[in-house]
Amino acid sequence: MKDYHMWIGGAPCEAASGARFTSTNPYTREEWARFPRASADDVDHAVRSAHAAFTDGDWPTWTASARGAALVRLAALVTEHADRLAEIEVRDNGKLFAEMSNQARYMANWYAYYGGLADKVEGLVPPIDKPGVLNMVTYEPLGVCALITPWNSPLLLLAWKLAPALAAGNTVVIKPSEYTSASTLELMALVEEAGIPAGVVNVVTGFGDEAGMPLVTHPLVRKVAFTGGEAAGRAINEAAARDFKKVTLELGGKSPNIVFDDADLDAAVPGAISGIFAASGQTCIAGSRLLLHDGIYDAFLERLLEMTRAAKLGDPMEADTNISPVATEAQHRKILDYIEIAKAEGATCVLGGKAASPGGAPGYFVEPTIFTDVRNDMRIAQEEVFGPVLSIMPFSDEDEAVAIANDVLYGLAAGVWTNDLHRALSMSRRLQAGTIWVNTYRSTSYTTPFGGYKLSGLGRENGSQAIMEYLQPKSVWLAEPRAVANPFIRR
Fold first, then answer.
1. With contact defined as beta carbons under 8 Å apart, do 359 and 380 qualify?
2. Where is the Aldehyde dehydrogenase domain (predicted)?
3. Are residues 166 and 18 located together in one domain of the fold?
4. Which of 104, 322, 343, 455 has a CA that sits 20 to 30 A from residue 79's CA?
């Protein structure tokens, strides 16, 4: 059992109450680490530390180039320690080490990218319609930013927020998921080694109602960036609105993965599997609704079933494991409940459909599950399961595919498989989603904006635009000193 501490003001610390909670390894179901259980008092301590670092000390005096150089150093350190960070995440959330190791290395690019972008944010001098007056527009950091991260990809999704927040000159308080706090705390040693001043980055650990919401509502917090479920995102948005805080929300998805009859099935079948069974379906961009053209429905389903049956469930640290356990006991129960709901609504389970125990492993395993005879009004087609459960629906033409795809409350992502360039462009235009993949799936980059339509969230992460989510414009007017003809009339 490893004991972790929160990170506030550049130093480890306990919760004021002394209370702790534990993290469970999803593969072994054994408790392996303990964390401080933060309260509103601890949150206040962390926010005030971040606020002090923003207003006093070294950080406010750093140039944008200095901030960028520190982020580039952090990128190098993350790369150096990628395997260790990945192993910790596997213990916490059960995902494949092969994926988490690659993810940790790739994550370093966010710090390098925003490190390079830090001194590229330029103001402007707009042409003014008033003689003798100069106007300058500059961009300034917001202040203390609350970064609230989920349990499925803790460090990667933290990088999406932390890198642009620091590049812009803000200070932060991070609240990781109570299920996966270890890797974020391990990262703090690298933040310190990179030379980022004490108090600029702080971490509180605990539960949403006890630590998360006090962080969102703290009067010194000026920005909230959250990745998670729709219900929590709605509560955060409503609470933040009371103090007019800026908000970025990356929420749920129920993404369609659409395969036309002219698609290359050698690519589309693995693409469908990657869309839903990679990461055991625990991704917001999961292609959980597979739309198949009538002309290829039977052939595609046969190949899909064959390839899925060959997937190996097992130890996430083993290189030949394809599907690992889901992250938590609560999520395990939720997925199994949705499977029963789908059966009760009339969907046909053609593969999987129950808990698994590969090799007698005690972990939170769910068999990769495929449903046919799914109607788009079923809960299994409308609600986010966040697990290895796929719904398949047929369509006859492009119009029907678009109608089914868009008839959902979410709009995070969509996939299109076709060799027709005109169709690819038409579908990309008509689908209501923030990311459209054509002949690929589940790709993201630090260079490209990511976010959702409808209930999938607000704002965008990644790409050059994301740094603007952490900045505010200031308009400065400079006038030549001269007498004002009539001070009671607006110039």
1. no
2. 17-476
3. yes
4. 322
30 domain residue, yes or no: yes
pLDDT in tens, 45-82: 999 999 999 999 899 999 999 999 999 999 999 999 99
Per-residue pLDDT, 288: 98
Class of residue 154 by CB neighbours under 10 A (exposed 0-12, middle 13-18, buried 19+) = buried
Q: Tokens representing 208?
A: 């949403």
**Phi, psi angle pair for 13, to nearest 5°:** -155, 160
Q: What angle do CA 194, 103, 458 make, to 5 degrees?
A: 90
- Same domain for 369 and 298: yes
Tokens 């090799």 -> residue: 359
Which stretches within 278-387 are classed as H helix?
297-309, 329-344, 379-382
Calculate what percentage of the chain has a pLDDT beyond 90: 97
Query: Is 355 inside a domain boundary?
Result: yes
How much of the chain, in percent, has pLDDT values that exceed 70?
100
Distance CA 188, CA 455 (A): 33
Q: Whole domain around residue 165: which residue ranges?
A: 2-251+456-475
pTM of the model: 0.97
Q: Which of 210, 250, 384, 461 is catalytic?
A: 250
Residue 487 has pLDDT above 90, yes or no: no
Contact 459, 439 (CB under 8 A): no
Give 384-431 pLDDT, tens digit per residue: 999 999 999 999 999 999 999 999 999 999 999 999 999 999 999 999
Asked if 62 contacts 170 with a C-beta cutoff of 8 angstroms, the reply is no
Active site residue 178: no
Pairing of strands 389-395, 289-293: parallel
Sign for the pseudo-dihedral over CA of 271, 272, 275, 280: negative
My answer on whether 103 and 236 are in the same domain is yes
* Closest-CA residue to 124 (of 139, 111, 113): 139
Nearest to 173 by CA among 137, 196, 205, 126: 205
